[in-house]
Amino acid sequence: MKTLIKDCCIIKMTNENEIIKKGYILIEEDKISKIGEGEYKDLKDEKLNIIDGEGTAAIPGLINTHTHCSMTLLRGYGEGLPLMKWLNEKIWPFEAKLDAEDIYIGAELAALEMIKSGTTCFLDMYYFEDDICKAVGQSGIRGIICTPVIGDDWQQRIERFKAFYKRNNGSFDGRIINMLAPHAPYTCTRESLEQSAKAAKEMNCGLHIHIAETLDEVETINKTYGCSPVEFLEQTGIFENKVIAAHCVHISDKDMEILKKYNVTAAHCPQSNMKLSSGISPVSKMLALGINVSLGTDGASSNNNLDMIEEMQTASYLQKLSTSDATALSPYETLEMATVNGAKALGLEKEIGKLDVGMKADIVLIDLNKPHMVPIFDVCANIVYSGSGKDVKTVIVNGKTVMEDYVVKTMNEKDILNSVKKSVENILSRQ
């Protein structure tokens, strides 16, 4: 079955000037086979499925490069606390009560929320990874699901990851990819970090880790090891792998040179960093140095949603404010962070992140026919500054339509919401 999206504005993300005001996208199997301006002429194929894109903008599916998906169950829990107090007194005690079924339900909720707000691929660090893989795979979107390495049982976690990787990597038509995730330099021992780096190299997989999120972390690592978190991780061999580093808020010029040297991606999470008063990441400076910077939401407990369009707006505004430069992080550059840079971070730049012939058909149609979207002088600015996830009308992943005209086709929204409410009631009742 071929699918034709017609009469839409197309933001290809191949070049800032390469925006098609009205055109078409032809999908065959899981890939884009044709893309062009005007009307698609060859309409003889009786099996052609047509999606009317009139009044919409087509963009590549958004890529969330840092989240903890099942923390949707903790949305709004433990508000108004700084990071370490929030983690120790609220989050970690709550998480200790979660079981595999809770995690599965939380992952379902996350996938549902991401579909409805235009995210087609995400990078996740959380427990009960098999259950997350199952929920995400069934939803129809892409998930890079990691095994967290933290605590005294880190050796067992690394060994479990190796079996987990063999079970799940490449499953669900290749939409599930697995990575290893040592939690952070302040929660992992030197040995656990060194062994994580070694395991990732053996498995030929990427690593995901929190780096320099707070000043407390920087002070702790400096006191313990006499250097910055980035310098410490370089010593452990972590950066000899493909690394996506969440946050990178408190980093020096020397740290940035190290990130650049090893092609580390910084996954920027502006709303979480603001809410927890962690600080402002020097995104504009990193981009100017040639460091790849992608975008993430972090978990729904510190955001409080998984809306990547909202995250783009915050990212752009925050850099303008912090640099006192109104030209910092333009709408198109911000869109690049959420698409092109995200794909590069995950090593998937030849498959997703752009709309072009031969790329995977991960496509989001954004409704421009709304009061807050009119008039349109700059479509990228409208999306980033005026839009939200609620403007996402249709979502296609791997060539399959997972949401059309605001209706999710792969998940039962009512059942999921009811399951979440019951799950949270059960969790709160546990001692």
UniProtKB/TrEMBL annotation:
Catalytic activity: S-adenosyl-L-homocysteine + H2O + H(+) = S-inosyl-L-homocysteine + NH4(+); S-methyl-5'-thioadenosine + H2O + H(+) = S-methyl-5'-thioinosine + NH4(+)
Record: residues binding substrate: 95, 183, 213, 298
Cofactor(s) it depends on: Zn(2+)
InterPro entries: Amidohydro-rel, Deaminase_MtaD/DadD, Metal-dep_hydrolase_composite, Metal_Hydrolase, MTA/SAH_deaminase
Cofactor binding, per record: Binds 1 zinc ion per subunit.
Source taxon at top rank: Bacteria
One MF term in the entry's GO annotations: metal ion binding
Residues annotated as binding Zn(2+): 66, 68, 210, 298
Key words, A-Z: Hydrolase, Metal-binding, Zinc
Record-annotated Amidohydrolase-related domain positions: 58-402
EC number(s) stated in the UniProt entry for this protein: 3.5.4.28, 3.5.4.31
Family according to the record: Belongs to the metallo-dependent hydrolases superfamily. MTA/SAH deaminase family.
Biological role: Catalyzes the deamination of 5-methylthioadenosine and S-adenosyl-L-homocysteine into 5-methylthioinosine and S-inosyl-L-homocysteine, respectively. Is also able to deaminate adenosine.
Alphabetical list of HAMAP family matching this protein: MTA_SAH_deamin
The protein's name: 5-methylthioadenosine/S-adenosylhomocysteine deaminase
Source organism of the structure: Oxobacter pfennigii
Gene: mtaD
